[in-house]
Every structure is written in structure tokens, then in C-alpha cells.
């Protein structure tokens, strides 16, 4: 606007610029805290023209034409109209994600979700029981090998090649030393001896 512009045009520009700044402020706030977003603002962000026509007296947002919004944006924003348009799109995406998360949380409190949790916990419990049985079996086998070896040493009847064979059988059955102490055996019922 040139310095010779009529006073009413300069006032109208300032009025529109204040309304634009209020839109920017509310868009940024709504993006940061979508749970507190003004629903009318969110709905208006579905199109450029709806955002321009939005009127929210409490937030000092006044309606204007899309061309006026673009002109005011180009005058006072660093990236012009692209800046407010990017914020508009970002709010729509942020709010949709927020609603999706709320719906996902609500779905967690249904009877079927609790049944799924119970099934999952029962399955995990069975896996732990199976793993415990496996480790107990592993320990018992090793303890028996050690007792037999001690008895053979005591009796003076040690056959080194036979002891190595028994140890190798144990390793093949239960794994090498240094492997994880806990082996999870999934979905298989193991019965102890």
C-alpha cells in the first residue's frame, strides 16, 4: 500500500493483518495441543477459502476473502501465503492423528480387546512354564552326568572317551556352554521326566 492510500484502506489492512496473526497464533497452538484445538478452526482448515471466511470473535479472527488473506500473508509473513497454508495442512494432519489415537485408545477398552489381552497373557505364561521345564530338564541332565562322573572317578572306573561322548550328547541336546541361560520354547508343551 502506498503512503497516499486512504486512511480507511490502511485501517482495513491492519485489521486484516491482526486477524491473520490471530489465525497463525491459533493454528500453531492447535498443532502443538490438538486436544485443545478449536473445532471450528480445525473444520475451517479443510480448505483455504473456509479458513479465510472463518469468524471467531473470541480469538479475534475475522472473515475475509481468500484474496485478502493471500495479500495480507504475502505482506507480513516470511514465506507469504505458503506459510499459513502449510500450517493449515499441518493442523488437519495433526488433528486426524490425534483423533486416530483417541479411537485406538477407546478400542482398547472393549470386551474383545480384554479377551485378546487375556489370551496373550495366558500364552506368555505357558511359554514361561515351557521354558522353566526346559531349563529344569537341562539342569537335571547335567547334574546326573556330573554325579555319574563323580561316582566313576570314586570307583576308579573312568572311561574318558565315554565321558566325552556323554558330554557331547548333552551339548547337542541342550546347547553349547555360553548360550543364553533361558531358552523360550514357544507353543510346545514339554513334559518333565
- Point out poorly predicted stretches: 181-185
Gross morphology? rod-shaped
Q: Give the helix proportion (percent range).
A: over 70%
What is the end-to-end distance?
93 Å
Largest sheet: none
pLDDT averaged over residues = 84
Helices and strands, in N-to-C order? HHHHHHH
Describe this structure in words.
The chain has helices spanning 7-32, 39-44, 48-53, 66-76, 81-107, 111-155, 160-174. The protein is rod-shaped, with a radius of gyration of 36 Å. It has 193 residues and is mainly alpha-helical. The protein folds into two domains: 7-107, no CATH class; 119-193, no CATH class. The longest helix is centred in the last third of the chain and has 45 residues, at 111-155.
Overview in brief:
The protein has 193 residues and is an all-alpha fold. It folds into two domains: 7-107, no CATH class; 119-193, no CATH class.
